[in-house]
Amino acid sequence: MDIQKAxxxxxxxxxxxxxxxxxxxxxxxxxxxxxxxxxxxxxxYWQRKLREIACTELAKAExxxxxxxxxxxxxxxxxxxxxxxxxxxxxxxxxxxxxxNDTDSELIKKVVRVLKTL
Length: 118
Hints:
2 domains; two-stranded antiparallel sheet; 58% helix
């Protein structure tokens, strides 16, 4: 690992510890920064940089593995498609058309085209 990368990681680690300490303190950002002798502008800069890096890392991870879930999150299974119960009945001039889940979609398209011409 090169020196610049190690220095950047150390700096990010320090920033993360400060952000975490503020969150655990329960203080407002303004009060925490005054107590710690930190400019609130630096605090917000560090917070923004940490978020940007987290988002970038998450995007990279999703490129390689779509099942990656951030720590503390739960991956939900997609909801199964709900099938329509019952039938759709179309009545035109005494002609009855019954459509259900098993009806071929191409057949429905052809019927609709014919109905448009009437």
